[in-house]
Each structure stands twice: as structure tokens, then as C-alpha cells.
Amino acid sequence: MTVPSREYRFFVFAPMRYDSMHARKHGFTHALEALAARGVYVEFPGSRSRYHPGRGAVTLNSGRFGLHPPDDAHPIPGRCGVLAVPRKLSFLGVRFGLEEKRMASLIRAWLARFFERDAAQSRGPRAALVTTARWAPFLRDIPFDVMIYDKTDIADTLRGHYSRGEYADLERETIERSQVLIATSNPLGDELRALSGGREVTVIPNGVDLTRFAEDRLHPVDMLKDLPRPRLGIVATITDWIDTDWLGEAARRYTRWSFVVVGPVTKTADMTPLQGLPNVHVVGKQPPEEIPSIIAGMDVCLHLLREGPVREVNRSTKVWEYLALGKPLVCSWIPDLEDCDSLLYRCRDLPHFFENLEAAVQENDTNRSEDRRREAAKNTWQSRVSDLLRLLDRWKAESRP
């Protein structure tokens, strides 16, 4: 008998900790639960998770001989389960570990033991949704009823400490093992289709969790209240592909406007263009639950990416989150956003950027704001996961003997 897709227990193998930011992996996992499927967010191996069972930072062996995974994922009521995967060992209260690649065999054994226990509990068929090929060394020889590879970005943003050649090998391994291939955008879908030798790839774009942006959940944010209007904000992980040059030029040109940069600043980010500008406010990483209210406090939202590979494939979750609140959005010339041109302001070059900034600040069109909200409502995470479940149903029907 064929198992309905909702009967699977989905393990979403993510590249980050659960509470680091709200991203595609969270959207998928939460929507699975909302649609009466079962979702477990699997954190990438590390030792700073809040979701280890017991007290303190738990290690692979929990201070004892042997490997000791938990009996089940840590439950977050109404959201999902979270499985925290340690990367270190401990003896006599001292924790130690090697780099990710050297710990792979121990982490794989820890995961194998967890899934052996999971199978013994008869919790149902398992689906693995793998969002970065860095999971490949940890998942070898661990059985799943179906594996889905989700290509979410270019390799350079996901490969971590692996060289490009090493990551390419891991991605090929993941593709070969996966029965279903999906991608975030059309350019990434084309790339994955080529990597897989022409296999079918389904594009499932990013979405939005509208419950996070409901009016009754929004509130004034203290850090914004004293900033002069208009307020223009960018919410992102600030890294080398964020166009701080354009942002700095705008801040120097429009000195009475407030520019707010929200998100962690990585070591690769070039913050030089923003230094010494009194109307630029870099507020750093904020709690994920505060992000909707922060966006609501902006007059115009910004999505600025430097010209390069990331911009060519990008359709960020933030786009739908900005639109869910009806905000004017000024962004770089991102090819995959062409079908949204009626909802936002794409910019070809710096003069066009200035022109669009002024238009966005002056915009006073309730109808256009409502159009943005309606379009976001068509692109929820639940609709994306429904597409994924239908895709799995079709795969099962076609693979049935």
C-alpha cells in the first residue's frame, strides 16, 4: 500500500542552528506541522544549540563511553521538533573536538544510532530534505524512505570549510542519492538539472509565514522610535554580496533619511562605505520574533545585492516578508524577480536606484500596498509545502512497481 506523503516524518537537514534566523528551512518545517505532516529541523553539527536535551552543551558521548543521542527531537509546541547534533566529545568535564571533516565518522555514527532508535519506535516512514551537500558525509549509509535535495543557493555560500572541488563531489553524491530534486529559483533549477544529467527538477520558490506578520503581532520597536523618517531598512545577513556601496551612496545623498541595517555582520562584509555616516544605523542581529515588527517600522525596504553569482540566482525569503506588510521594496536588478516588477522597484544602475528610492519614499498608493499583501498571501510556506507533498505523491505513483 502506498504511504500518503503526510504520513512521512520529514527531517529537514539545515545548514544552521534553529534559532539563528528565520529562513526557508524553518518555513518548510513549520508548514509541514501546520499541514498535519511531521517536521523535524536538524541543526548542523555544532555545540551552541539551545535544544540539546539535558543541561549545558551536550556532546556526542555526553561525558560517557560510547555515543549517546537523545531518544527523540526536542519538541517546540505548535512548530516542529528540533534535533541538535553535537560536534564535540567530552571527558571529565572537558569538551574537545576537531574540524568538521575530521569528526564526520563520529557524527555519522551518532546519527545512525539516533535513527536506529527512531526506527525501533515505529514512528513511520522517513523523508530526508537535505538543504546543503555538507550533510553528505554525515548521512552515508543511513537509510531513508525518500531523500529530497533542495538546492537553495550557489555552492560558494554553502560549502563552509570544503574546497570548491570537495563540495562539488559532495553535491554529486547528494544528487545521486536523492530521488527528488527541487530548487529555490529558476537559475538554480537549471544548474541542478545540468549537474544531475538532465533529471527532472521542480522549482519551489521561497515563501512567507503570514502568521508571523499578522497585525495583532506587530508592535512599536524601541530602537526605531527616535530615528527620523523616512526610515529605509535592509534586513539580511550582511556579507560580501550585500551592496554596501549603493547603500553608502544613498546615505550620503539623502542625509535627512534614516538607513537601518539589521542582521549579523560577517567577516566578509565590506562596511567601509557606511563608516562615519550619522544617518546609517547598524543594529546587528535581532531576535527572529522581532523582525516582523522591525520591518513594519520601516517606510521603505531594501534588498541590495552586488552584481555576481548570488544576485543571478536570488529570490530571498525577505522579498515575500517585505511584501506581506505591503512595504515599498527597492532592490537590485535581480533577474528572478522580473515577474514581480509591478510590486517593487528594481534598479539597473546607481542613478536608477536614486530615482526609485525617491519614488518609493513618496509612494502613497493604498491599492499598490494591498496588491503586495495579496501577492504574498498566494506565496505562503503552506502552499510551497503542499506543492512538495504533491510532488512526492507523484514520485511514489511513478516509482510504484
Describe the structure.
This protein is an alpha/beta fold. It has two domains: 223 residues, Rossmann fold, CATH 3.40.50; 168 residues, Glycogen Phosphorylase B (Rossmann fold). The chain contains 13 helices and 16 strands. α3 links the parallel β7 and β8. The longest helix is centred in the C-terminal third of the chain and has 19 residues. The protein starts with 8 loop residues before the first strand and ends with a helix.
Structure annotation, total helices = 13
Strand-residue fraction?
15-25%
Which structural category fits the helices and strands? Answer: alpha/beta
Poorly predicted ranges? none
Averaged pLDDT = 90
Instruction: Supply the CATH architecture of the largest domain.
Output: 3-Layer(aba) Sandwich
Topology order in helix (H) and strand (E) letters: EHEEEEEHEHEHEHEHEHEEHEHHEEHHH
Distance between the termini: 11 Å
Shape by Cα distribution:
globular
Strand runs, count: 16
Describe the strand arrangement of the main beta sheet, using strand numbers. 3-4-2-1-7-8-9-10
If you compute it from the alpha carbons, what radius of gyration comes out, rounded to the nearest whole angstrom?
22 Å
In CATH, what is the class of the largest domain? Alpha Beta
Residues in helices, as a percent range = 25-40%
Would you identify the CATH H-level superfamily of the largest domain?
A: Glycogen Phosphorylase B
Number of structural units classed as domains: 2
Largest sheet: 8 strands, mixed
CATH fold name of the largest domain? Rossmann fold
